[in-house]
Amino acid sequence: MQFETVGVVGCGLMGHGIAQVAAAAGQKRVVVVESDAAALERGVQRIEQSLGKLAQKAVEKGAMDPDSARTHVADSMARITPSLARKDLAACDLVVEAIVEDLQAKCALWRDLHAVCPPRTVFASNTSSFPIAAMAGSSGRPERTIGLHFFNPVQLMGLVEVVRTPDTAPEVHAAALAFARACGKEPVTCADTPGFIVNRLLVPYLVQALLMFERGDASKEDIDTAMRLGCGHPMGPITLADYVGLDTTLSILEGWCQRHPQEPAFVVPASLRAKVQDGKLGRKTGEGFYRWEGDKRQ
Ligand code: 3HC
């Protein structure tokens, strides 16, 4: 089994990155579907800008000459077919969903796509917090349903978690690993458990940093500096929570607290809830625990 035509549903923060790395890796065709025309246009522009930036860096480093950089950007863009219609996913070997983190919306999408796509199409979710098995029933093809969890920013982060349920067929798992590698990522395999590997470790760590800040044990700047310089992390935990999105972090935690009330690591810090209530969602709104100018913390 090999994926040549890939569909991506959702062209937001994660979806545009997934479509970009798939197209840049030379997938034959990448169909990107959004329900909103303005969001689709923004996502496609973001892909073009990011490809341009990465190509420019490759030229500066001497890894590409300017002509091949221009050709690489143009060829990658030419492989992408933006669309507002789910029916355009009918010819895909693989569809990756990166829509809103809402289980009902994801299940409804898979029900729709089961009617659109042939039985051979593999369905993959980029969910960061929902069980893949909870979607497998709606997909109508549990043996062809899998998790493909990319990391933000997709263009720069080297990992993909491949999440299999007891129903996922071995050849689907193998093809998903090969797809992640083809996108230039290192895949790891995980069972269908809360948060898989990364978020199961990362989110409780972010929580502990916020609780430490709330108690006044240290300033947010010092907590971040400590983890950057003491542990060599590229970003401290409170900066990272802003970077990931405080709404995203809260929604992951709320879902886990509801589904796993017995797990002591899953708690919601009051400061996180308050920021989200104030609409301060981190980098994406220009303010969270810190102020942001685009991708840069102020
Ligand atoms: N496309 C192209 N270029 C990009 C880019 C993108 N999407 N995003 C950033 N860049 C560029 C920047 O513009 C910058 O270019 P410049 O040097 O010309 O200014 C360059 O990459 C380096 O970026 P920065 O200067 O901002 O700084 P860093 O060296 O710190 O690199 C980082 C940025 C790779 C994001 C690094 O800080 C990092 O690894 N941070 C941790 C991120 C992380 O942990 N992500 C995982 C979050 S968890 C998750 O995603 C799971 C989810 O389910 C919640």
Key terms:
11 helices; 298 residues; two-stranded antiparallel ribbon; eight-stranded mixed sheet
**Spatial order of the strands forming the largest sheet:** 3-2-1-4-5-6-7-8
Strand elements, count:
10
Largest sheet: 8 strands, mixed
Low-confidence stretches: none
- Ligand species: 3-hydroxybutanoyl-coenzyme A
Number of helices: 11
Shape: globular
Report helical residue fraction.
40-55%
Provide an overview of this structure.
This protein has helices at residues 13-24, 37-60, 66-78, 103-116, 133-139, 170-182, 198-215, 220-231, 237-244, 246-259, 270-277; strands at residues 5-9, 29-33, 80-83, 94-97, 122-125, 145-150, 159-164, 186-191, 292-293, 296-297. Helices cover 48% and strands 15% of the residues. The protein contains 11 helices and 10 strands. A hairpin with an 8-residue loop joins strand 6 and strand 7. It has 298 residues and is an alpha/beta fold. The strands form 2 sheets. It has an 8-stranded mixed β-sheet with strand order 3-2-1-4-5-6-7-8, sandwiched between helices. Strands 9-10 form a two-stranded antiparallel sheet. Helix 7 crosses helix 9. The structure holds 3-hydroxybutanoyl-coenzyme A (3HC). 3-hydroxybutanoyl-coenzyme A binds next to helix 2, helix 7 and helix 9. The site of 3-hydroxybutanoyl-coenzyme A has 18 residues, from helix 2, helix 7 and helix 9.
